[in-house]
Prior knowledge:
Elements: H1 8-20, H2 22-25, E1 30-31, E2 37-48, E3 53-55, E4 74-77, E5 85-94, E6 97-106, E7 117-120, E8 132-138, E9 148-151, E10 157-158, E11 161-162, E12 168-172, E13 185-188, E14 192-204, E15 210-218, E16 225-233, E17 239-242, E18 248-250, E19 254-262, E20 267-280
Antiparallel strand pairs: 1-20, 2-20, 3-19, 4-9, 5-6, 5-8, 6-7, 9-12, 10-11, 13-19, 14-17, 14-18, 14-20, 15-16, 15-19
Amino acid sequence: xxxVLDDPWVAEAVRRFQDDYRSVIAxxxxxxxxxxxxILKFGRNLDLTSGTQETIWDxxxxxxxxxxxxxxxxxxxxxxxxxxxxxxxxxxxxxGGYHFVILDVPLNGQTPVGEGIVITDAYGQYGxxxxxxxxxxxxxxxxxxxxxxxxxxxxxxxxxxPQDLTKVHAKIRGAAGLQQSNKCxxxxxxxxxxxxxxxxxxxxxxxxxFVDFSLEVREHGGTFRERTIGNGxxxxxxxxxxxxxxxxxxxxxxxxxITGISSANTTTGIAEFNGILGALV
Length: 281
């Protein structure tokens, strides 16, 4: 198997990360080879509004309202028949940083379910509420009938559907036949850093529209800032907005997302980004 550091631009990105984030790294060692993991995130927004900046995700509102505490603690379906196990990937907040965890949570139809069962957690057993949710997936051999939501419990939930979408952090559009969330956003944990190597965007379906896309990163304690930009249209295909080195380095405890601004209403925007995860040990 080839060493990822055989790519001179990956090696350059590691050196740049070590130089630019010395205070973040402190006395920890940078490890890319041992981590041996990549991250691909993709999303679809079915209803971009003209002139409005929106995350490429499928919840139904413009952008996620990020929380700075472990407040994401409920999951439910809009269908009473859904009892599948849902894999919930995300991060909980502890000791001032985000820690990655995978939870498997059995649905109980339209009845909200609380904390999940820990399946993978390299940093200690944790089965509580989350501060970030990056992906949902149906693990069962039975397809979902309804839409599945992960959200904060401080709101009204009607027939399994949370009524305050500002407190929703991911959704599976099971009623449309999907079995996984479409959210082009993620968070980098306190123990990791990310070397982003490529990103593509496009405009789907029949809407004759143009979309200006932005790949944004918010470092810990800051605001979202553009790291690269591009545009797409119905006729231009699924285009790269970033595919050449030098690669983009994302430090620990950072949020990443792709947003789009459309030239017309009811535009479907799609996006993805890909990269290599490194560890601080």
